[in-house]
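Continuing from the previous page of notes. For each protein in this section, the sequence appears first, followed by its structure tokens. Read the first protein now.
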Amino acid sequence: MRPPAERSRDRALDRSILALAVPALGALVAEPLFVLVDSAVVGHLGTAELAGLSLASTILMTVVGLCVFLAYATTAAVSRRAGAGHRAEALQAGIDGLWLALALGVALAVGLGVAAPHVVGLLGADADVARHAADYLRWSVPGLPGMLVVLASTGVLRGMLDTRTPLYVAVGGAVLNTVLSVTLVWGLGLGIAGSGAGTAVAQLAMAVVLGIVVVRYARRERVSLRPQRGGIWVSAREGLPLVVRTLSLRLAILLTVWVATGLGAVTLASHQVVNSVWGLTAFALDALAIAAQALVGHGLGAGDTAQVRTVLRRTLRWGLGAGVVLGAVVAAASPLLAPLFTQDPDVRRAVVAGLVTTAALLPLAGWVFVLDGVLIGAGDGRYLAWAGMLTLVAYAPCALAVRAWAPAGTWGVVWLWLAFGGVFMLARALTTGLRARTTAWMVTGS
């Protein structure tokens, strides 16, 4: 039996983890809720529209995902400086991150808006599906600057151990997106384009609110709001390894969608629903990773490696347990969820089978996300970049085998998710787990 003092410290740490993770959970699930709402609204327009949304949302989230370093690198930089007692420097790094996010968002919105039909065409969909995908992209890309500013602002606030503000803004954004999506798609009859426009407006509104909050933090510490060229360059340079790491993840997701596309419209439409639910549960599990990021960053900034090890141990237990609970919920709810997204009986059957498959794999995902968050919080982006490419190499042959030999429909969805949620996630678990057993990532100081 462990000493009472040690148990007391663990309980105190658990309270700290939950104090950060629970609000972060609400903020994180807002984004997949956007996708779920859009999927439910668009799904009742038809199978082709739902398949088009699958392609378009994958492309859009790939672009946004490649910029997730704006949140992760900012959280690590701000939390380290704040943990070392340098609040003004922490907030200056955050302001520079916001300027970088705004510039990237404008450039990417223009580029993707022009290239939308060509990008959709690369995924090999038929003409009807491709048309719907291009429509959604054109109307949603104006929200890209807002999406990236939301990432950077959220990273700043997490680094300051404020996960409540992003929660409140995310809830408001999710409600606004739901109202706009239903109104524009069904009330005004804009179809899938209305869903994209509603998402864009909601993201821009969230960016404005979060940006104002960060500016107020900076004003209190008398931090300049002007972009600092050196600071922006540092933000970009520190984020580059995380771009590579995220690129490996997004390439794996794109490969998965390409495989689903090759297995027919029913498989692709079903994959959109399963992937939307997976995204919701993944972001829920990622709340623990966010808590780990902030606590690890503060611990390393303060030079307390013993505390960092304790954070790693406790958050891994939480991640595994949360994965078991979420898996049970998804499996039990799968027959009830499928009818919410489509009236096609073939798609419904495939959705239920896919959700049961992903439910079994969620405990592994909970373990992986926490390890990933710990290493990101430690600023170990270079290793994560190499590890990400290695896991992609391990996954690609399995995905290609599914495309070559799996049948269309229900079993195609099952085999596809066994490959992605099983093989790919297991490879991530091995690479991050082996790294976490060492001390190479535990670099202290601000």
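Done with the first. The second protein uses the same format. Note its length before scrolling.
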Amino acid sequence: MSRNIVLGVAGGIAAYKACELLRRCTEAGHRVRVVPTPAALRFVGAPTWEALSGQPVHTGVFDDVPEVEHVELGQRADLVIVAPATADLLARAATGRADDLLTATLLAARGPVVFAPAMHTEMWQHPATVANVATLRSRGAIVVEPDVGRLTGPDTGKGRLPDPAALYEVVEAVLAGRYGQRHDLAGRHVVVSAGGTREYLDPVRFIGNRSSGKQGYAFARAALARGARVTLVAANVALPTPAGAQLVRVETTEQLRQALLAAGDADAMVFAAAPADFRPAHPSTSKIKKTPDGTTPPLELAVNPDIAAELGAAKRPGQVLVAFAAETDDLLENAAGKLARKRADLIVANRVGPDRGFGTDTNAATVLDADGGRTDLTEMSKVELADEVLDLVVSRLGVLGRGAGHE
């Protein structure tokens, strides 16, 4: 369904990334009005915004005066998103300034407002910015956590604008009423693993699986939308990092194990990754060559550690662990056995095959809990399924009370 979106652009070098966000919104059929600050036009000019949006671009409240544009834009907007939101823009928005068209529009907006900050780490961490972000959030605005990565020049740290694809996911989630409507995970730390690990036979070949990471990333997005602080441990995933998540990239099962052990203070852990059950016992340090007679070289396998079981044995009081059982046969029997062995609170059981589970955008599952309960989830989007499972997580967190991972 086509919606009215105001895309605010503040004066930072990341303004060029907003062009991609604009393109995604317009290609989805939304009507987008770009409202840059005067400083933003020093990075991307008005003709670019007008060409991409098909709408006029103004920066001041004295443009198109008969239409009282700042009021009209705010009233008609189904969503206002500011990307990038600089430290200056956040400060002016928090104090209610209305000295250009964008800040005046923010005051007139009655729909949801999203800020996607981008600035140097020191500016993001400054007490003034921290206070301004807290003020905006207290008023109901959604302030997406910036990414960690390369900033202007040689600097690296927290303050990078999230990927436009990830910001577009936030836009769609807000418009669908899935983002920011519930804050039942606010103050909680949720760790999610995603993707499939690789175990190397030699420097160029590996044993792996078909996991795309889509279900794990859906859990991360759903938890972020409910206010959680999210650590996403991704094994060989080629997806945009969900806006606001702390990403930890791993490759092998042992690397996945170490990353999850390091995040063991979490209130909830969702083990959506597909770690390899086996690894080569003696990986070759050079490429394995074909034998002259065409025979198959011997391959000896060793068993990988059961990460979920290890964390289940070390589970803290109040912590909730969610395991997964991707099965081709005997789904519920295998899932029940894994639930007990891994000492998890919940296990999500789903069938996998050539055309189901791996790489798809939808999923169906049965969730078993340690108390003997069962929840059947018919086919739905992976984000919707993640929300259904997080409902069960929130329920258990409420019963168990807040753990040591609470900030």
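What the second structure shows: Residues 401-407 have pLDDT under 50 and may be disordered. The first strand starts at residue 4 and ends at 9. We return to this in next week's lecture.
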